[in-house]
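QA checklist item 7 of 12: single-chain prediction sanity check.
[x] sequence parsed
[x] length recorded as 193
[x] structure emitted
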Amino acid sequence: MKCFPLELLIATLVSTGASATTIDLSKSVSSAGGGAGFYVVDNSFDLPANFTNAVLSITRFVVDDRGALLLNGVVVDAAGVFGPGGGLLQLTADGAAVPYTFADGNGDRRIILASGFTPGRNAFSIVVNDTGAGIAGATLDTAGPTGFVLAAELAYDVAPVPEPGAWALLALGLASISVRRVLKQKPIRHPSD
């Protein structure tokens, strides 16, 4: 009986490789409401339990008149009209507007997030505040529509999960190695001895 080397069996289990998945999280709304107010757009996504190497790339964020992107409750980007600068930002419907420093205004950006993800549901929210004023305090038309543009993409790998047949093959290989070692160690007795 020929036995497969243990290394070959393990290599077979491990060599299946991870599969890559990409989700387009881009979204655009030209009129989230009728003017001044607080708006939240849910852009949540699910990750499998065996995900690895998750990366969220944000390449554009434009909002009228100010807003933020939240990943699982943490602000990952904020933008607005007449930014960068200091202003107020309301993050929850029942919360008060708090002082916030906007590092960027509206437009293109290169934000790469490689942490903050969890298996299962990930809350990715677009919070829009239409206050009628830009970040630096300049007055805007409060009767105008509220909107935003988001260009974002999530990429992740799914770690391979060996199939039951592969585990059975590994168990059979380990058992055959054990039997072979036991048979090698016992001397064979002949009836004539």
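[x] summary fact logged: The helical segments are 6-14, 164-185.
[ ] second reviewer sign-off
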